[in-house]
Amino acid sequence: MGLISRGINYAFRLGGLGARRQAPDASLPALPTFPETDRLFFLSPHLLMAQLRGGGLTHPYKDHVWVYSCVNAIAQNLMGIPLLFFTGSRKDKKLVEAGSLVKLFETPNPMMSGAQLIEATFIYLGLCGEAFYVAEQKNPREVPKELWTFHPNRFKEVVDRDTGLIAGWTYEKGGKKIPFEAHEIIFFRYFNPYHDYRGLAPLQAAQAGIDQDFWASRYNAAFFKNNAQPGGILETSANLGDEEFKRLLAQWNDRHQGASKAHAIALLEGGVTYKQTGLSQKDMDFLEQRKFNREEIMAAFKVPKSELGIYEDLNFATAKTQDRVFWTKTLLPKMALFEFVVWHQLCSRLSGPETWAEFDRTAVDALKEDLKEMLEAGQKVWQMGVPFNVVNETLNLGFPKVEGGDMGYLPFNMMPVGSQAIPNPSPSAAIPPPSPEKAAGSPPLPAASLHLSGTTVIVRRTMDPGLPGCSTTTCGRP
Question: Which residue, among 187, 465, 220, has the nearest Cα to 337 in the 3D structure?
Answer without folding.
Answer: 187
